[in-house]
Specification:
mainly beta; 16-stranded mixed sheet; 2 helices
């Protein structure tokens, strides 16, 4: 479902600036620790989706330390008669450069309102050769590997989230352009940024930066819609609200909670 991908694109890309800032003014996740953002999507005030995103610093693979970013989108019981969703996403990125190494999608969704999809796809990024190798397994069968050309500054949605949340300072009043590949389509997107006040359920009114971008939605025959993201206008850069204006109406994701963890280091040879 296209909304799940655009959720991550939106949250992550809100944190990019066309001018790199002072790295002392960005959030820190020390080695061996992590942070989790918990979002709830609502339609007409009714919760319909849960979407946590977790960043871990200290994931070890092949003797090297990486960031591991994990996200999931789950439909809530009051929506499952219309569609069911249990999608998982994982990105492994280099800790120094935030360059993506591998991006994994595990899609499990279906119902009257969405097309049934059940597959696992892994993207292996090779920025030096400007390509991605895509492997896909569906219904127990492996598809032929595909090689997709990309530009050097191409990210998967979650690696971009990590890079521009942890590394770059964000400034309002700038256009934000980026190249994103999620295994379906290579997208070049430009966001317009403005500074404004936004009302939050838990924190009241806060100063925030809003990023907005018009984009076609593949789920709706490439009809135009828009994405808007609000993040706090301080050094924490907390992404607090995401809103998707779709051809069938709008869906709003709001940050419910931020959790910190100190014991999440894991070791693995493969995801």
């Amino acid at each position: 479902m296209r909304k799940r991908t655009l959720l991550f694109i939106a949250i992550l890309l809100l944190l990019k600036s066309s001018v790199y800032g002072n790295q002392q003014d960005v959030p820190k996740i020390e080695p061996g620790t992590g942070k989790e953002f918990l979002y709830t999507a609502k339609k007409l005030g009714i919760p319909i989706l849960k979407a946590p995103i977790r960043i871990e610093n200290g994931f070890w693979e092949g003797g090297k330390a990486y960031y591991r970013i994990q996200a999931q989108v789950d439909s809530l019981p009051n929506l499952r008669l219309l569609f069911r969703m249990k999608n998982r996403f994982t990105s492994i990125v280099e800790t120094a450069s935030f360059t993506p190494v591998r991006y994994i999608k595990e899609i499990d969704q279906g119902g009257p309102l969405v097309k049934d999809k059940h597959y696992r796809q892994t993207l292996f990024f090779d920025p030096a050769r400007q390509k991605v190798i895509a492997e896909k397994e569906e219904h127990g069968e492996k598809h032929e590997k595909k090689e997709i050309p990309i530009s050097p500054e191409t990210y998967d949605p979650l690696s971009l989230f990590a890079r521009y949340y942890l590394k770059e300072e964000v400034r309002p009043g700038q256009d934000v352009s980026m190249s994103i590949f999620d295994g379906v389509k290579l997208r070049k997107m430009v966001f317009r940024s403005t500074k404004e006040k936004v009302g939050l359920k838990k924190d009241g009114t806060v100063e925030a930066v809003c990023l907005e971008c018009a984009t076609p939605f593949a789920t709706f025959g490439d009809q135009e819609g828009s994405i808007r993201i609000w993040y706090t206008a301080n050094s924490e850069k907390t992404p607090v609200i995401l809103e998707l204006d779709l051809p069938i109406g709008s869906v709003k994701f709001e940050l419910e909670e931020v959790r910190n963890s100190k014991q999440i280091i894991q070791r693995s040879s493969m995801e």
